Each structure stands twice: as structure tokens, then as C-alpha cells.
Amino acid sequence: MNADEERQFREFVAARSRSLLHTAYLLTGDWEQGRDLLQTALASTARRWSRLRDREQPEIYVRRALYHAQVDRFRLLSWGRETVTDTLPDQPSGQVADWADTVVQRQDIMAALRRLPKRQRAVIVLRYFEDRPDNEIAAILGVAQGTVRSQTHKALTSLRATLAETGPSVSPCTASGRGVIA
């Protein structure tokens, strides 16, 4: 990588790392694992920066690298083997209860999201947390737009069923603040 390419790469990382970290967190469900995932994807991108065909859209390449790195890590490290409990250790009272209910709802949604298969989770993150259209999601994941729509349908059905069992008072479609999908 020459000096000009390194400058371009550093500018890209400075401008987009916050959004990319948020995506990595949503894919992993953990900030530290998300940081590691983003670091892996950016290292991969840096190695290929001079060969990227379209310098105007490197973000698609990085997001694809994030998704693939997450799938690889899941396979290698057996992520997702968590112990889920039905009850919280302490019950808060008063005003803290409202805040605690919000936290519990968010935890329920994140737990349900982590239970989704990797491709379904990626589709939900890209669509509802990043507001990406089907064609961009298809490009990032390297699949057809029809696959994006079918994976979205399957994921929402699964999330609704999971959240109905745990009983949070929010819909999986409103969890990101994007509104309900008909």
C-alpha cells in the first residue's frame, strides 16, 4: 500500500468505523467481540485496499468481510453457546423498574437475535438496524434479492415466535425504532 492509499484507508476507517462497529456488535451481541470482528475485517480490507475495484464503495467490501469473519469465528470458536435463564437475579422497584424493563426487553431481543442462523441475523441487522435496501443487502452478503426477502421472512417469523415465548412488550420490528412492518 503506497502513502496515498494508506491515507485513503485511514480516512475511510475514521469516517466509518463507528457505524461498522455498531454492525459488528449487532452481529456478535458483544462489544468486545464486535471490536475484534471489526479489527479482523479492517485488517483484511487493508491487505486488499490497493486491489479494491470500486474505491467509491469500500464499505460494502468491509461489511461483507464482517459478515464472513463472523461466520468463520462462529464456526471456529463455537460462539453462541450461552446459558439462557428464565429469571433475573434481582427484581428492581420504583422508577428503576421502568429502566430495568427496557433493559430486559433489549436483552430479550438481543438474545433472540443471537439465536437466529447467521445469514438471517445478518439480514435483520442490515435491514432494520442499518436501513439498507434489499439490493444492498444482497450485494453485501453475495446472495440474490429473493434470498434476502425469504431470509427476512424466516427471521421475523422466528423472532416473533421467540419473543412471544419470552413475552417482551415490543415487536421485533419496532426494536430498532424503525417501525412496524406489515
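Above is the first protein from milestone M3; the second protein from the same milestone is given next.
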Amino acid sequence: MHSDMETTEKPAQNPKKKRSQSDKIGRLKYNQQLLKQTLSEIEEVKLMLRTIFAGLKGSFNFEKSLLERVACEDEVDREILRFLFEAGSFGLLPKELVAKLEQFKVARHQVSRRILRMNKQLEKEFGEQIAEQRGWHWALTRFSMDAWGTSDVAEKN
């Protein structure tokens, strides 16, 4: 028996071509949706890393270079932290820091703003602050002093 239909025949109707999502809503809007989705996934990964880090915080050894890389944006920030470390637990007034940072032409209120920004960055990443206010003076926290102290001992050896 021979069938009437051959396998090479074309179907009676053409299959419709499906439009892509970018064609339906527009390429720009589609790219914006993808970007939002990617950014939210990145935030989830960062949150997961912070959670893991918080659980393992006791077993980490923090070093000066790590804190500087996270908190400091430029040389002025590094110099502020160096002067605060040299001042010890008593700390320095913002106007004293400005006098020491004369070459950078930094105003007194900018010193405080920079320290607050560094605190915010370190708080976001490690849940710790780099400096604290003791009266009107700024001084490094115990966490920062420990990191600076262990780094200086390692550098001397």
C-alpha cells in the first residue's frame, strides 16, 4: 500500500514565527529589565557573602592593607588613618588632622566627612567601624588598632 501523503509535502499553514521578548516590549526596556535582574542577583550574592563572613569573622585575620583597600578611596584617607594610628587611643581633633594634612588642602569638616564615609564602607563590608569619636577627638577603634598593630609587626619582621 502506498500512502497519499508524502513526507516532503509542506504543511497547509505556515507556522507563525514567535517574537522575542525584546521585540514585544522594546529593546531598551528589555535591556533595563535584564540589568535590574542581574543587579538584584548580585545583591543577593553580596548578602550571602556578608552572612558567611559574619559567621567566620572570628577566624579571619584582618590586615592594614585589606582595611585600606575597603575603606580608603585615596591617599588622603590613608594619611588620616596613619595619623590616627600614630595618635593612639587618645585620638586627634579634626583641626589637628587638618594641620598634619596641610599638603592636601583639606578642610576640617572634610576630615570628619571622610572618616564617616570610611566607617560606612567598613560597616557595610565587615560590620565594623574604622574610627570612632571620643569627645571631639577621632580615634581608631580597637578592631582597627588590632589590624594596624598586627600589620606593623609583620612588616618589621
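Note on the second protein: The chain has two domains: 21-58, 61-156.
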